[in-house]
Input
Amino acid sequence: MNPHTYSETHSFVRLMILIATFLRYPGVGATHSINSSDNHKDAMQSVLIQMQQMAKDLNVVLPNYSVHTLRKDLRTLRQYGILDQRMYRWGYYLGTGAFTPIELSMALQALATQAQADVALKQVYETLERRLRGWNLELAGQLFYPVRTQLHRSIIYTDPAEMMQHGHYRHTLLDHLEALQSSILQGLPIELCQRSNPYQPEATGQCLQVYPLQLIYVDIAWYLLHEQVENGHLNISRLDRLSDHYQLLNPQGRGVESQFQSLEIAHQLLTSGWGLYLGSVEVQRQERLGNLAPISVVVRFFPPALNFVLEGERRHPTQKIHRDKQGRYADYHVTLPERSLPEFLHWVNRFMGSAQVRSPERLKQLHQEAAMKLIQRYENE
Output
C-alpha cells in the first residue's frame, strides 16, 4: 500500500496552513486583470506570503514552499471539493466564507438594517446570529453591535404572522414573498390582482399579468417593480395594495438577462424622474423613444428651508442651485419629465411658506392653488 501524499507530517501541516490561510484571509491572491500571466504569478506569491504569516501566528514552522508545490496543493483542495473547479481571479476563499471579519460585520449591519422591514431577511439574520454568536464571544459582540441602522418605519405590517397576532390580517401579496422572489430571479410571468388603488379606485379588483422585476423599499413600505407581459409597461405597486392572488402563468421563464435589461430601463426612468410614478403606457412609450422633451422647473427657497435644500447636492442628476448674493434665497433648477411634476410638487409642499414655484407656469398655479386651499381651511374653522 502506497503512503498518501500528505502522510508525511510536513506535507500535512503545509496543507492545513494553506486551508487556514484561506479561512483567515478570504480574498488572498486576488488579481486585477484576467489577461496578464504575471498576475497569476503575483497571486501565488501573495498566497505564499500570507501562509508564512499564518504559520508565524500559529507558531508553526513552514518549510520552504515553492509556487510549484502550492499549485499541487491547490489541485488537491479542488480534488476533494474544498475549492471549486474554477479560476479564483478575485482571491481564494472556502465555500461561502468570502468575508473577512470586518467585511462580515459590515454585511451583517446592512442585513440587520434591511431586515427591519423584511420578514424573510429577518429570519436569515436571526439564523446567522445564532450560528455566529457561538463562534467567538468577544468578536460576536462587535459583529452584532448596531453601528448602522435606519429609522424608516413601515406603515404597514410586513409579517403575516405578526398581522394575525395583532388582529390586522390582510390578504396581500406579502403572503407570497418567497414565490415572488423566485419568480423575479427566473423571469417568470405571474398574475397579480389589485386589492386597493387609492389613485384609481375603479381599478380595484383588476388583475395584471406581469414579470416581477425587483422589490423596493421606499420610505414607508415595500413596493414591487414590474413589467406588464402584454405591452412591456413598467410600473411600481405597493405590496399591500396587491391581493394574495398569485398565479404562475408559465413555468418557463425568460431568464435573468431579460430581467436585467428591463430593470435597467426602469431605473433609467426612475433616475430621470422624481418619485416612483413611471408614467402611463403611452407616455412611458414616448419617453423611452425620446419623443418627450423634459420640463425645466425652478423653485425659489427661502429660510429656514434654504439651508436644508442647499445641503442636498445629489437630489437629482440634473439639478443646479443658484444662490442669491445676499443669501436671501436660492433658486433650485431641475429638469423633469412631465409625469414627475405631481410628485415633485408634493416634495415642494413639505416646505410650506419657504418655497415659491417660479416655473413652469402650470406648476406655479398648482402650488398657489394648494396654498389658497390651506388658507381657506383655516379661515373656515
Notes: The first strand starts at residue 28 and ends at 30.
